């Protein structure tokens, strides 16, 4: 499945300072629902942690979700509105991870 | 020569005194001018009520709105906007806005809010103007370096628009004074630079029911949204748990391109003006994410008010008293002030002052000096002969240290074996590095207390600070 992943607010430093990653994620560890394989955000986080995060994974994740202070946006929409970890991903989705800034 | 030196310092002192007096006089003139305008206005109204015949041009009550001829001329380009017009400008003139922080975000926000005619404009800041603020905090002038930011900002605002009321709050915002200060304004602009202040201001706005225009900028990125307005979320709805302190970078550590907070600050002024004038759609339930480097702006939809929010949620009972007793520094594990943290991780015998280090160099004692700052810091300035091994790569480059130690032992120096000293910018990372070096067997390693800032302060005043 083709996805665009973007990291911002300093999170890009965890993946070689690259902000935009066009990736191909094959659904794994997935339940079969209605005969279709579904990739959910929970799976994607596991995949990112294993494949993109090069250093300090604790700066990206805490437990099985993102650490406090990270906003997750699926197609420019807060993942709280689409089911958080259970958000189903589709082909060509854009997922943005952004760390909240405090500076001024 | 001595008398010349004395003369110079006497002249400098006199210039300082005169400058201060000049500023004071200018401010008094502005205040008196504003007062005169008020008086004239009152007089005119009084005359009308008394039934005598004032000159027609000054009877602005006849225009069907409260704008004086001078206001009509000053704000004419606003009045010409069909979607803003007399109503928008009248609302603006009646409104009051508080800007917390007269720094990178607050500078342009304050300038535009003053220029556009907000009736009462408050400024909160406890800091003084410094030379390294000037590249982004464009409200301040060089002659104000060393003076309070509120004073400097107020003078700039008044020089643009002397008809508005500027209120200076020369203090840090704390739980003890926040309710009192914020309650005096209709709209709050968060232009601060740290996590505890952001929680404090948001909670206070919820308690008082005030809309909050929140902006942030760091490096090449900025973020902006409006909290606690029209059913939108508060800061805690979005970030119920504070981030780890390691994720809270500061402009003074990570840098910031000056124009980036400038852009976000302008957008903050815009959102505050929209709310104050009741024009347009406020940026509530949405957030602007600005990436200067790639020239990308994302406007994303964020969650609404959270029913579970501990401060604004359905069952939340966050009272004024609870607010006043809440420890925001403990909650976020970081200080409300922008002062850099000073760690104390090592025993005294594993540390050395910059003066003692200077003496060791003077005596020609064998040593290896490791600078653990990032490479781009090292490029700004470094001590001669120091070896740059950034802290994150220390583990991987231990062999370089061993090799340098051996080189030195082969006779460059006489006496006992070379010692390892570690330096960084302020003396925190150097302690972390020494802790690690001790663990892997370099037990004689010592850190230079206070880092290069200490060196510049105590040994070499010409060494550049940054
Ligand atoms: Zn809330």
Automatic annotation (TrEMBL), chain A:
<dbReference type="Pfam" id="PF09138">
    <property type="entry name" value="Urm1"/>
</dbReference>
<dbReference type="GO" id="GO:0032447">
    <property type="term" value="P:protein urmylation"/>
</dbReference>
<keyword id="KW-1017">Isopeptide bond</keyword>
<comment type="similarity">
    <text>Belongs to the URM1 family.</text>
</comment>
<dbReference type="InterPro" id="IPR015221">
    <property type="entry name" value="Urm1"/>
</dbReference>
<feature type="modified residue" description="1-thioglycine">
    <location>
        <position position="104"/>
    </location>
</feature>
<dbReference type="GO" id="GO:0002098">
    <property type="term" value="P:tRNA wobble uridine modification"/>
</dbReference>
<comment type="function">
    <text>Acts as a sulfur carrier required for 2-thiolation of mcm(5)S(2)U at tRNA wobble positions of cytosolic tRNA(Lys), tRNA(Glu) and tRNA(Gln). Serves as sulfur donor in tRNA 2-thiolation reaction by being thiocarboxylated (-COSH) at its C-terminus by MOCS3. The sulfur is then transferred to tRNA to form 2-thiolation of mcm(5)S(2)U. Also acts as a ubiquitin-like protein (UBL) that is covalently conjugated via an isopeptide bond to lysine residues of target proteins.</text>
</comment>
<protein>
    <recommendedName>
        <fullName>Ubiquitin-related modifier 1 homolog</fullName>
    </recommendedName>
</protein>
<dbReference type="InterPro" id="IPR012675">
    <property type="entry name" value="Beta-grasp_dom_sf"/>
</dbReference>
<comment type="pathway">
    <text>tRNA modification; 5-methoxycarbonylmethyl-2-thiouridine-tRNA biosynthesis.</text>
</comment>
<keyword id="KW-0819">tRNA processing</keyword>
<dbReference type="InterPro" id="IPR016155">
    <property type="entry name" value="Mopterin_synth/thiamin_S_b"/>
</dbReference>
<keyword id="KW-0833">Ubl conjugation pathway</keyword>
<keyword id="KW-0963">Cytoplasm</keyword>
<feature type="cross-link" description="Glycyl lysine isopeptide (Gly-Lys) (interchain with K-? in acceptor proteins)">
    <location>
        <position position="104"/>
    </location>
</feature>
<dbReference type="GO" id="GO:0005829">
    <property type="term" value="C:cytosol"/>
</dbReference>
<dbReference type="GO" id="GO:0034227">
    <property type="term" value="P:tRNA thio-modification"/>
</dbReference>
Automatic annotation (TrEMBL), chain B:
<dbReference type="InterPro" id="IPR028885">
    <property type="entry name" value="MOCS3/Uba4"/>
</dbReference>
<dbReference type="GO" id="GO:0046872">
    <property type="term" value="F:metal ion binding"/>
</dbReference>
<dbReference type="InterPro" id="IPR000594">
    <property type="entry name" value="ThiF_NAD_FAD-bd"/>
</dbReference>
<dbReference type="InterPro" id="IPR001763">
    <property type="entry name" value="Rhodanese-like_dom"/>
</dbReference>
<dbReference type="GO" id="GO:0006777">
    <property type="term" value="P:Mo-molybdopterin cofactor biosynthetic process"/>
</dbReference>
<protein>
    <recommendedName>
        <fullName>Adenylyltransferase and sulfurtransferase MOCS3</fullName>
        <ecNumber>2.7.7.80</ecNumber>
        <ecNumber>2.8.1.11</ecNumber>
    </recommendedName>
</protein>
<comment type="similarity">
    <text>In the N-terminal section; belongs to the HesA/MoeB/ThiF family. UBA4 subfamily.</text>
</comment>
<comment type="pathway">
    <text>tRNA modification; 5-methoxycarbonylmethyl-2-thiouridine-tRNA biosynthesis.</text>
</comment>
<comment type="function">
    <text>Plays a central role in 2-thiolation of mcm(5)S(2)U at tRNA wobble positions of cytosolic tRNA(Lys), tRNA(Glu) and tRNA(Gln). Also essential during biosynthesis of the molybdenum cofactor. Acts by mediating the C-terminal thiocarboxylation of sulfur carriers URM1 and MOCS2A. Its N-terminus first activates URM1 and MOCS2A as acyl-adenylates (-COAMP), then the persulfide sulfur on the catalytic cysteine is transferred to URM1 and MOCS2A to form thiocarboxylation (-COSH) of their C-terminus.</text>
</comment>
<dbReference type="GO" id="GO:0061604">
    <property type="term" value="F:molybdopterin-synthase sulfurtransferase activity"/>
</dbReference>
<feature type="binding site">
    <location>
        <begin position="132"/>
        <end position="136"/>
    </location>
    <ligand>
        <name>ATP</name>
    </ligand>
</feature>
<dbReference type="InterPro" id="IPR036873">
    <property type="entry name" value="Rhodanese-like_dom_sf"/>
</dbReference>
<dbReference type="GO" id="GO:0004792">
    <property type="term" value="F:thiosulfate-cyanide sulfurtransferase activity"/>
</dbReference>
<keyword id="KW-0819">tRNA processing</keyword>
<dbReference type="InterPro" id="IPR035985">
    <property type="entry name" value="Ubiquitin-activating_enz"/>
</dbReference>
<feature type="active site" description="Cysteine persulfide intermediate; for sulfurtransferase activity">
    <location>
        <position position="424"/>
    </location>
</feature>
<keyword id="KW-0067">ATP-binding</keyword>
<feature type="binding site">
    <location>
        <position position="149"/>
    </location>
    <ligand>
        <name>ATP</name>
    </ligand>
</feature>
<feature type="binding site">
    <location>
        <position position="237"/>
    </location>
    <ligand>
        <name>Zn(2+)</name>
    </ligand>
</feature>
<keyword id="KW-0963">Cytoplasm</keyword>
<dbReference type="Pfam" id="PF00899">
    <property type="entry name" value="ThiF"/>
</dbReference>
<feature type="binding site">
    <location>
        <position position="125"/>
    </location>
    <ligand>
        <name>ATP</name>
    </ligand>
</feature>
């Amino acid at each position: 499945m083709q996805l665009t992943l973007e990291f911002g607010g300093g999170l890009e430093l965890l993946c070689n300072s690259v902000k935009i990653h066009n990736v191909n994620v094959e659904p794994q560890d997935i339940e079969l629902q209605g005969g279709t394989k579904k990739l959910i955000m929970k799976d994607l986080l596991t995949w990112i942690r294993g494949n993109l995060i090069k250093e300090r994974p604790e700066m990206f994740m805490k437990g099985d979700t993102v650490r406090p202070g990270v906003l997750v946006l699926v197609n420019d929409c807060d993942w709280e509105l689409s089911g958080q970890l259970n958000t189903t991903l589709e082909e060509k989705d854009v997922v943005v991870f952004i760390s909240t800034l405090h500076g001024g | 020569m001595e008398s010349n030196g004395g003369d110079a310092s006497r002249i400098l002192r006199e210039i300082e005194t005169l400058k201060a007096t000049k500023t004071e006089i200018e401010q008094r003139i502005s205040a008196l001018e504003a007062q005169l305008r008020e008086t004239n206005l009152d007089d005119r109204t009084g005359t009308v009520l008394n039934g005598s015949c004032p000159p027609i041009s000054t009877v602005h009550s006849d225009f069907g709105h409260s704008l004086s001829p001078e206001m009509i001329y000053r704000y004419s380009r606003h009045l010409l906007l069909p979607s803003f017009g007399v109503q928008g400008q009248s609302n603006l003139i009646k409104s009051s806005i508080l800007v917390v922080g007269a720094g990178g975000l607050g500078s342009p926000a304050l300038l535009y809010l003053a220029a556009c005619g907000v009736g009462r404009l408050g400024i909160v800041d406890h800091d003084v103007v410094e030379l390294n603020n000037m590249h982004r905090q464009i409200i301040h002038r060089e002659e104000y370096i060393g003076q309070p930011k509120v004073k400097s900002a107020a003078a700039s605002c008044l020089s643009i628009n002397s008809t508005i009321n500027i209120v200076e709050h020369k203090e840090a915002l704390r739980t003890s004074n926040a309710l009192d200060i914020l309650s005096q304004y209709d709209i709050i602009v968060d232009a601060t630079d740290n996590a505890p202040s952001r929680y404090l201001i948001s909670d206070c706005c919820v308690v008082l029911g005030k809309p909050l225009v929140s902006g942030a900028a760091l490096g090449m990125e900025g973020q902006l949204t409006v909290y606690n307005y029209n059913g939108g979320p508060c800061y805690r709805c979005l970030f119920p748990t504070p981030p780890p302190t390691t994720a809270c970078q500061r402009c003074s550590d990570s840098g910031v391109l000056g124009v980036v907070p400038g852009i976000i600050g302008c957008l903050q002024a815009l959102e505050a003006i929209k709310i104050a004038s009741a024009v347009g759609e406020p940026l509530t339930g949405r957030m602007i994410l600005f990436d200067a480097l790639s020239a990308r702006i994302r406007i994303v939809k964020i969650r609404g008010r959270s029913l579970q929010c501990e401060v604004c949620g359905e069952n939340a009972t966050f009272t004024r008293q609870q607010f006043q007793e809440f420890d925001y520094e403990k909650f976020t594990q970081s200080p409300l002030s922008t002062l850099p943290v000073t760690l104390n991780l090592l025993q005294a015998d594993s540390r050395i002052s910059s003066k003692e280090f200077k003496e060791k160099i003077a005596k020609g004692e064998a040593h290896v000096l490791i600078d653990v700052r990032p490479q781009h810091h090292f490029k700004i300035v470094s001590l001669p002969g120091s070896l740059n091994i950034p802290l994150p790569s220390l583990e991987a480059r231990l062999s370089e240290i061993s090799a340098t130690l051996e080189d030195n032992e082969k006779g460059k120096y006489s006496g006992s074996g070379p010692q390892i000293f570690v330096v960084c910018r302020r003396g925190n990372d150097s302690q972390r590095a020494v802790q690690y070096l001790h663990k892997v067997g370099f037990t004689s390693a010592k850190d230079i207390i206070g880092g290069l800032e200490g060196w510049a302060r105590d040994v070499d005043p010409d060494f550049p600070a940054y």
